[in-house]
């Protein structure tokens, strides 16, 4: 036997999440190291979620609810959907992989505005599909170019709003026109809305509100950001019941653990923590943005919980900030060389960042 592994793996790189925060803090001798490189919640998890985990921890010897029934029911009430229109996943990464496993085949094309969140391309490539790149227009998704790239071979279009890493949104009118223009025999349109909770532009699109008119739309959301549950890996898909049925056929039986399910359910009910997080991010985004502008830095207007900041020497600046206790992401890793991606921190952290700059 000459080959053990699939040849497609030679076209993929291992995703580098970096060393654990604790290990890096020890290595640098900086117990105060703050990670602004992963777009995490600066306030931590919902206190209700923590309490729910503590109550549930004695039951982790039992398999979780394979269908995440209670969480789907709560989300259905929140969004005015039927529970059969929802699927809970082990983070949005798994949901992207499930779409690829259920829909993509050799010869299919998947249109992706790029640079983009890496799992879009990885999942499509592993499924045998060909990724067709649609370059961003500066920092914005170019829907006209995306439409031009759609052909009879296009199985899906993957959009992200607010965009990671560009921070920009797809506005309501253009998105509706794009979806209508695809017609009744539309490809799947995957709309990743992981950062939608931090939008304050009234013209941003709400994918879930469009599901009734567009049955081939698939919306992705997550509990990692606004709810602060990144370490538990809980995301969800909202789509037509037919789409959810197809995705369930390739989903592992117990894909979301017990602690993740109860924590997400508790976080969903914690309106106080949600609003506190949103208010802090919006206020500190404005504060940090103003401070950066005053210092001569430029960046696209952000609708996410991070900024994509143009700098002269990103690797060197990232290293200097890390040595001073603030970890940010080099934009070159994300398709934006000469940029740093900087998550919104607490006021004290943001003040320290600006002072260092």
Kindly give the count of domains: 2
Distance between the termini: 57 Å
Q: Could you state the CATH homologous superfamily of the largest domain? A: Type I PLP-dependent aspartate aminotransferase-like (Major domain)
Structural class: alpha/beta
Describe this structure in words.
This protein is α/β, with parallel strands linked by helices and 357 residues long. The protein has two domains: 7-45 and 272-356, Aspartate Aminotransferase, domain 1 (Alpha-Beta Complex); 47-270, Type I PLP-dependent aspartate aminotransferase-like (Major domain) (Aspartate Aminotransferase, domain 2). Helices cover 37% and strands 15% of the residues. It has twelve helices and twelve strands. The protein has helices at 21-28, 47-56, 69-79, 91-103, 118-126, 143-149, 172-182, 241-248, 258-269, 271-294, 314-323, 347-356, and strands at 34-35, 86-89, 109-114, 130-135, 154-160, 188-192, 217-222, 235-238, 306-310, 326-327, 329-330, 339-343. It has a seven-stranded mixed beta sheet with strand order 2-8-7-6-5-3-4, with helices on both faces. The chain has a three-stranded antiparallel beta sheet with strand order 9-12-11, with helices on one face. It has a two-stranded parallel sheet with strand order 1-10. Helix 2 packs antiparallel against helix 9, helix 4 (91-103) packs parallel to helix 5 and helix 10 (271-294) packs parallel to helix 12. The longest helix is centred in the C-terminal third of the chain and has 24 residues, at 271-294. It is globular, with a radius of gyration of 20 Å. The termini are far apart.
């Amino acid at each position: 036997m000459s080959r053990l592994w699939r040849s497609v793996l030679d076209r993929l790189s291992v995703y580098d999440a970096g060393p654990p925060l604790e290990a890096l803090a020890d290595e640098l001798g900086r117990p105060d190291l703050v990670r602004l490189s992963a777009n995490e919640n600066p306030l931590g998890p919902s206190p209700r979620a923590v309490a729910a985990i503590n109550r549930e921890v004695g039951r982790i010897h039992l398999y979780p609810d394979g269908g995440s029934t209670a969480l789907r029911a709560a989300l259905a009430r929140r969004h005015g959907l039927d529970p059969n229109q929802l699927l809970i996943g082990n983070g949005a990464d798994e949901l992207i992989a499930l779409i690829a496993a259920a829909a993509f085949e050799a010869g299919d094309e998947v249109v992706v505005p790029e640079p983009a969140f890496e799992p879009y391309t990885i999942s499509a490539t592993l499924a045998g599909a060909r990724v067709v790149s649609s370059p961003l227009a500066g920092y914005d998704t170019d829907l006209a170019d995306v439409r031009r790239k759609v052909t009879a071979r296009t199985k899906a279009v993957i959009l992200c709003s607010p965009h990671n890493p560009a921070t920009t949104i797809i506005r309501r009118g253009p998105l509706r026109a794009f979806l209508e223009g695809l017609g009744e025999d539309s490809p799947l349109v995957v709309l990743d809305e992981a950062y939608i909770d931090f939008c304050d532009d009234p013209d941003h699109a709400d994918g879930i509100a469009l599901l009734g008119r567009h049955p081939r739309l698939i919306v992705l959301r997550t509990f990692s950001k606004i709810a602060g549950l990144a370490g538990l890996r809980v995301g969800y898909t909202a789509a037509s019941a037919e789409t959810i049925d197809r995705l369930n056929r390739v989903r592992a039986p117990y894909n979301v653990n017990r602690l993740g399910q109860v924590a997400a359910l508790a976080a969903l009910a914690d309106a106080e923590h949600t609003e506190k997080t949103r208010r802090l991010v919006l206020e500190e985004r404005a504060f940090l943005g103003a401070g950066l502008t005053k210092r001569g830095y430029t960046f696209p207007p952000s609708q996410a919980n991070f900024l994509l900041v143009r700098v002269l020497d990103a690797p060197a600046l990232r290293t200097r900030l890390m040595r001073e206790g603030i970890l940010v992401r080099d934009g070159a890793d994300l398709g934006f060389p000469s940029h740093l991606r900087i998550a919104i921190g607490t006021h004290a952290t943001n003040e320290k960042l600006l002072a260092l700059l």
